[in-house]
Design a protein that fits this description.
Largest sheet of chain A: none
Strand content of chain B: 15-25%
Helix content of chain B: 25-40%
CATH superfamily of chain A: MetI-like
Number of helices of chain A: 11
Helix content of chain A: over 70%
Shape of chain B: globular
Shape of chain A: elongated
Order of helices and strands of chain A: HHHHHHHHHHH
Radius of gyration of chain B: 26 Å
Number of helices of chain B: 16
Largest interface: A-B, 18 and 22 residues
Oligomer: heterodimer
CATH architecture of chain A: Orthogonal Bundle
Number of domains of chain A: 1
Structural class of chain A: mainly alpha
Structural class of chain B: alpha+beta
Chain lengths: ~280, ~550
């Protein structure tokens, strides 16, 4: 309850919540709210401006931009949420194990994981797409791989601190098995920084998926995605500027909100981190 | 105290160093590695604007052309698109070519005779014709080049056509070549005018592993200078070219600019003087801006090439269903901003070689009929298919997406595949697709262009893989070997009917092919009709009036 009060008091949290809650509604209620089928073409009214029939106008195929926005949030969110979850699980596991094991084994695990950090994200994503094809499923895998090291490092350094704590030693001395120690005692205590990283990773993942769809390597037409809509709209700036405006606005706000949420969570969950930069 | 000020001084020094590096980087980066030639037009001294015929000093040294595609190969006998043909026609020529006035004119040949048997052609080569390395063009080179068209390892686009026509080539003397055909062939001269029917140097090819992609050398008005892959190709004037006074401009720089918006903006900012493939919405925009000239030819047509080898697409009824289902108007409105004409029959313009338009309404936009045909063929619930197109040209991509939507309405679930143009050409050359979106114009003016497209046999860039119909084949042979105009009109009418019944190709619409240039560019124009793809011939006449 104290945490809830803290959340509400934090301005950043409130702002991000105001943006993110409608986004969540879009994900679940989008198909209900959308006035048109996002794939339905009306080729005699291409690139039209706003009208009662088409609240945000139409794209070059005469499809309703508003409906496509509502459906277009899903691939970004799917990639971001599932990919981040994957990175969280894999990274935490590797980090905690490496931290607890310590010594050469721990170092080896961490060094291997950290090689992924050498790859610029877009390049690694393009490589995976070139080898395995486009689509949401492969992007989820890319996100999971790319962000595992971030979670692993946090988990690792936190585990190093925590394993020397008394309550851990207590557990070990009463004969608890290693998995029980890791999952039951260490994991809950390293959770805070990991949760902060989750929200930061989500925002990076949204940006990555959008960037790839913009380039034509992510979600394939005719299925909509905000990044893909921005890419298509670019050719029609001189004809209908609002076409690029709406998905860009949505994307900007979402990423901003996700980032601010990460900051807010950092303030709330771990005030100690504020001191270290 | 001392330590503090030392720290301050060092950090100030570091900051200044960083700032200077940043400025130096900015300054260095903006100027492109230009050739020593002067800028086209912008920094020219005040020339005498009233003189009618510019002398050499009043023409710019360099003309910049922003090109829509990076060639995947510079091998001249392979047709890889209009953009590459612009470069090809600068560097290579054949015996004959369609000239800027849309008439056939002599290139390497200065004259020819046809014997009474209509099978024997004797070509006389210009005495002064030379290759870029200074060697004379001889009849041996003509013989070598025509035989090279038949060489499988070269992969010439028109190999099947030439091998169907050519019987033998002899070098009677250094400047006289005799070509003997298997049978009289009405379109033979037209085939010799193809930009791919180039004459190359036998000695050069033999010395360079027959690889003209790695070592380009021809006899056209321009010599190959450099190819910075993905960025630009530079060609320089050949002073041994057989047309006196040509080419007009010493250096041509083809800058690869596949993105439509960037290419058109390059024209607007003056970075480019001439651009190809102006998309429909930009044509509308440029027409209202001063200082630019748009040059339009409505001749190429969009179509679907269908792989007829196996599966549902092997059944003509299924292909006809597709022809009924496609929303052609939707394609025109989306991909071409409403500019273009639907094709419900065969893509021959009325009047072309005597066509009177009798099949122009063979198909219509009829979803019910399409579904009925599918059911008759045994696919009442539709099936899955992939459409190959390209992300490089927006209108190709948009055509594919509208077709995808049209097919969905009759139960066919299509996925769209959008690689870059180079990959798409590679795949289409070997038939690696189910349905292909294609934009083409036929290759020669004569109706015999149909042979390359519809004759059975091995897969080619322009053929429907697996399509082989004996009636079509026999009509094609008849059309080619018959020399009377009236009979040929009848033959080609029958051919059109049969091809519509079988529909290995589904024709969608005629579209505009547009070049745009700055008003100060003279001497270039878009040839009308099918010849739009031969517009590269004008580049020898093109110059910038300073």
């Amino acid at each position: 309850m104290k945490m809830l009060a803290q959340c509400v008091k934090n301005k950043k949290f409130v702002f991000s919540a105001i943006v993110l809650i409608p986004i969540l509604l879009m994900i679940f209620l989008g198909p209900v709210i959308a006035p048109h089928d996002p794939l339905e073409m009306d080729t005699s009214h291409t690139l039209a401006g706003s009208s009662p029939a088409y609240p945000m106008g139409t794209d070059e195929y005469g499809r309703c931009i508003f409906s496509r926005l509502l459906y277009g949030v899903r691939p970004s969110m799917q990639v971001a949420l599932v990919g981040t979850l994957g990175a969280f699980v894999a990274g935490s596991l590797l980090g905690i194990v490496a931290g607890y094991a310590g010594g050469k084994a721990g170092s080896l695990i961490m060094r291997c994981v950290e090689t992924i950090l050498c790859f610029p994200s877009i390049l690694l994503a393009m490589m995976v797409v070139a080898l395995f094809g486009t689509g949401v499923r492969n992007l989820i895998i890319v996100v999971a791989i790319l962000y595992t090291p971030h979670f692993a490092r946090i988990a690792h350094s936190s585990t190093l601190k925590v394993r020397k704590m008394e309550y851990v030693e207590n557990e070990v001395s009463i004969g608890a098995s290693t998995p029980r120690v890791l999952a039951g005692t260490i994991f809950p205590n390293v959770l805070s920084p990991l949760i902060i990283q989750v929200s930061l990773t989500i925002s990076s993942a949204i940006l990555l998926e959008s960037g790839l769809s913009f380039l034509g390597l992510g979600v394939q037409p005719p299925a909509p995605s905000w990044g893909q809509m921005i890419g298509d709209a670019r050719s029609f700036l001189s004809v209908n500027a609002m076409y690029i405006f709406w998905p860009s606005l949505c994307l900007c706000l979402t990423i901003l909100a996700a980032n601010l949420m990460g900051d807010a969570l950092r303030d709330i969950l771990d005030p100690k981190l504020k001191e270290s930069f | 105290m001392k330590k503090h000020s030392l720290k301050k001084a060092l950090s100030l020094l570091a900051a200044t160093a960083m700032l200077l590096t940043a400025l130096a980087g900015c300054g260095g980066g903006s100027s492109s590695p230009a050739t020593p030639a002067s800028d086209s037009g912008s920094s020219a001294p005040a020339a005498d604007a009233s003189s009618p015929a510019p002398t050499a000093t009043e023409k710019a040294e360099e003309l910049v052309i922003a090109l829509s595609a990076d060639p995947s190969t510079l091998e001249p006998m392979i047709q890889s698109g209009q953009a590459v043909r612009l470069i090809k026609m600068c560097m290579y020529r054949g015996l004959l070519a369609y000239q800027a006035d849309s008439q056939i004119g002599y290139e390497i040949a200065e004259s020819y005779e046809v014997a009474d048997d209509n099978k024997t052609y004797t070509f006389h080569i210009r005495p002064e014709a030379k290759f870029h390395d200074g060697s004379d063009i001889t009849a041996e080179d003509v013989k070598f080049s025509l035989e090279r068209q038949l060489d499988e390892s070269v992969g010439s686009t028109f190999r099947s056509d030439f091998s169907g026509m050519l019987d033998s080539i002899e070098a009677l003397d250094a400047k006289t070549a005799r070509i003997t055909l298997k049978e009289p062939s009405a379109p033979f001269i037209d085939y010799l005018t193809l930009p791919e029917a180039v004459i190359v140097s036998k000695a050069w090819c033999e010395a360079n592993g027959n690889n003209l992609d790695a070592n380009p050398m021809g006899s056209g008005p321009y010599m190959f200078d450099s190819w910075d892959k993905g960025r630009e190709i530079i060609v320089k004037a050949f002073d041994g070219f057989y047309k006196p006074g040509k080419p007009e401009t010493p250096t041509l720089r083809f800058v690869i600019t596949p993105d439509d918006t960037t290419r058109v903006n390059a024209l607007r900012t003056g970075e480019a003087d001439l651009i190809d493939y102006v998309p429909a919405k930009e044509i509308i925009a440029l027409e209202s801006e001063s200082g630019f000239i748009t040059d339009i030819s409505e001749a190429p047509f969009m179509c679907l090439q269908i792989n007829c080898t196996e599966g549902p697409l092997a059944d003509p009824k299924v292909r006809q269903a597709i022809a009924y289902a496609i929303d052609r108007k939707g394609v025109i409105d989306t991909a071409f901003m409403g500019r273009g004409t639907e094709i419900f029959g065969f893509p021959t313009q009325v009047g072309q070689q005597g066509y009177d338009g009798k099949y122009d309404s063979y198909f219509s936009h009829d979803l019910e009929k399409a579904k009925a045909l599918l059911a008759e063929a045994g696919y009442p619930d539709g099936f899955d298919v992939t459409i190959l197109s390209s992300s490089t040209y927006d209108f190709h991509k948009q055509t594919a997406i509208v077709v995808q939507d049209s097919l969905k309405k009759i139960g066919i679930n299509a996925e769209v595949d959008l690689p870059d143009w180079g990959t798409r050409i590679e795949r289409s050359n070997v038939g690696d697709y189910e349905i292909l979106v294609s934009g083409t114009a036929g290759n020669i003016v004569d109706m015999d262009w149909c042979t390359n497209y519809f004759m059975g046999g091995e897969t080619r860039m322009n053929s429907a893989p697996g399509f082989s119909d004996s009636e079509v084949d026999s009509l094609l042979v008849q059309g080619r070997t018959t020399l009377g105009d009236a009979q040929r009109i009848e033959i080609y009418d029958k051919l059109r009917l049969r091809l519509l019944e079988q529909s290995p190709f589904v024709f969608i619409n005629f579209r505009e092919q547009c070049f745009a240039r700055a008003a100060y560019v003279e001497g270039f124009h878009n040839l009308q009709g099918i010849l739009t793809y031969n517009s590269g011939i004008c580049l020898e006449d093109t110059y910038i009036r300073k």
